[in-house]
Write the structure tokens for this entry.
Amino acid sequence: MKINISSRDLSYDIVYEKGAIGHLQDYLNTDRKALILTDSGVPKAYAESAASCFKEAKIVTVPQGEQSKCIDNYLMILREMLAANFTRSDCVVAVGGGVCGDLAAFAASCYMRGVAFYHIPTTVLAMVDSSIGGKTAVDFEGVKNVVGSFYQPSAVIIDTEVLKTLEDRQVNAGLAEAIKMAATSDAGLFKYIEDCDDYMADLEEIIKRANVIKKAVVEEDPQEKGLRKVLNFGHTVGHAIESAAEGRLLHGECVAIGMMLMASEEIKPKLEKVLKKYHLPTECEFDTEELTDIMKHDKKANSAGVSTVWVNTIGSFEFKNMTWEELSKINKIRG
Ligand code: GLY
């Protein structure tokens, strides 16, 4: 099964197949060199499986975690490609989650002005969200995603077999992004996530339905000039919480708390219930002042305030420009 993403000058497939990581030749040209980027948290066997499909492959492993999304690693990848005489016909493959994807895609977008990039996501978060839509970036001078580009993958290969080794906390954190998309754009998917009783079995269906939402959004607005901002539901305050938590909370967990702060009183109980079902946090310990101060450094902020996404009823959303004062009022700490 495939979903095609196409908009103006871009077109690529998201391919769904269990076990695909071991026979990539069925989906892409493997008769060339590949730099496979993975991280220390991903079982080695996955990158090795992907590498074995190519004529020649170099596996590069970075430490697990956001700190790997840095300029030094970006330069290191370019050095590896240059040292191995990569040409414009060779490719970069990310076997990992969002950090690997963003870093590998950014390097692919710059090497010789762009070589093919493939993502084989190994986390729910990357399958649901970050592998699709062409956002690439590294963090710089302490600012998340501040250096990057829009560069579309040539294909995204979703092999849900790899999720068997992912710990539950990571699965749930990834599901927060699916809940985010359902809350703003698909009441049917929200209900599906609310009702499913064996979510591991339902995971592939949830991922595909979230990808259908993301497809519609990125096809209409590939460069986040308007509609794509809807994907930031829960992220405005979520990013600030992530920064304040200094690694103690996963991205999806921070988004879960962020969503609660941007939900109407009417839907809050429903949202809280579904987040709790997946063991996601719905409140945090940080104070208003601290979070607002961090948000002022968000690249989407300006001196007056920041653009936010609100959900008043499940399956719909509203963009609202908020002043810092208004924001500090909603960031009330509960519990
Ligand atoms: N992860 C949000 C976006 O792709 O725009």
Notes: The two ends are 45 Å apart (CA to CA).
